[in-house]
Amino acid sequence: MKKIITLLLVSALAIASLAGCSQKKDSAEGGLLQTIKDRGYMIFGTEGTWSPYTYHDENGDLVGFDVDVARYVADYIGVEARFTETAWSSIFAGLDAGQIDTVSNSVSYTEERAEKYDFSTPYNFTSYAIMTLADNDEINSLEDVKGKVSSNDPTSTIGQFAEQQGVIFDEVKEAAQAISEVKNGRAEVTFSTNIGFADYFKQHPEEEALFKVIVVSDPEPNAYFPVLKGNEDLVAVINEALAKAQEDGTLSELALKYFDVDTTKGN
To answer: What pTM was computed for the model?
Structure first.
């Protein structure tokens, strides 16, 4: 029995190895862009829980600024946009494993990520901001957060920015949960974008008086499509799509639709 099991395992490994070689061969011959065209759809990884960037509307449909930009890119390529929803901490693992083609979730550029991924041109610009309770007299600027408990996901770019300020993490996975932690006193502050906080108050106007929001950075590019290195053709066509979306006004229209202000030009 052990011999049979061993033979089965060896066979399975051999098949997996051959499949991996075949996938590498296909990739080398046509690249990911050709694979996307052949299959007829492009797979975007996204959270689906971060309004107004990627979330579900009252009908349960996946919507948001990043979602609509992704659909525009896929349409430009001539394929359908499909989305795989997952927690932020797992998104890049899905990209590494080839389960998704890129990420549509306002991904920021970092030097560490650039070691593994190529990035499109940026398609949105936003400022970082902090939120704390309105009656918290200890936090009035970015310098005041050092040593304070911040509810954020430390694996996100926003979380990494918070870490650079010397916060103590109350680890959460979703923006709404982060704000709830501050409201309930389990955290003293949370970091997000100014747009993210503004959208929260749009949905919860009754809570706006409970908090104060302090913008702590100038507008910076914060939305790129990352693609595994070696797929320059795909990055190039994404850039073509984004340039067209900028030229025909689509990016501005989507920003106004979801943010009430055009954040796509960096000014």
So the answer is: 0.76
